[in-house]
Amino acid sequence: MNVLAQSTCCVNNAGAFGDGGTISDRALGVYTAVFWASVVLGVIVTALLLYAFVRFRRRSDADDPPQFHGNTRLEIAWTLVPLATFLSLFGLTAANMPFINNVHAGTQYTVTVIGQQFSWTFDYGASSSGARIRSFGTLYLPADTDVGLNIISTDPPCNVSPSVPSGSTLAAAISSEGCGVNHSFFAPSLGQQMNAIPGDVNTAPIQARQGTYYGQCTELCGVGHATMTFVVIALPMNQFQSCVFGNPSGSIDPTSKSCTLGGS
Ligand SMILES: [Cu+2]
Fold it and tell me: What is the rounded CA–CA span in Å between residue 113 and residue 131?
């Protein structure tokens, strides 16, 4: 519902090929390099195959096409060229993984992302009055600024159905196992995805250009899984400050001007 309620102003690409920020830029850069390397390799291999089909085909029943065995130069070439190709693509991927996975050095803002059945809460710390500063269903970010995410799941609750006799083996099994539910924070156009696992804190960096982005839970977590959507709004820094930290009581008013893009 909150997705539909958003204004159509400033909505960025919601797909996985969005250019939402520096992290998605890196992911897209690796993807593009791998894609074009695959296209070039595919064209070369297809051309060589077609050439070999035609050039070395059997022309008649009596014809014995030329046989190749132990052509050392050919064998070295078709071993080294793919090896060098795949090692360089592996190197490119491995070199970019820390930037995509690890909270960047010097990051000043940390937001705790709380997944629960079936919604997302975002916690920005304590206000001057000691109250938690939280937003629900919408993650506010300062634009063009590195932010660290601590991603957790607060599920259980472990609700044993009243139809299961209390004290029974079944009730004990339900309450001791299988209550913890994983969620997964996924903001495709910002190039970030991380599981939310009960009892664990997973960290991830996030960075967004000014705009509105959509996200969703990507870990099947129960009957309301499909409703676990969220919105990311990247505001200019001064707007972000007054939207999130401007109220001593800690509350964030999503309808306020400071929390609205283009509001100021
Ligand atoms: Cu889910």
Answer: 17
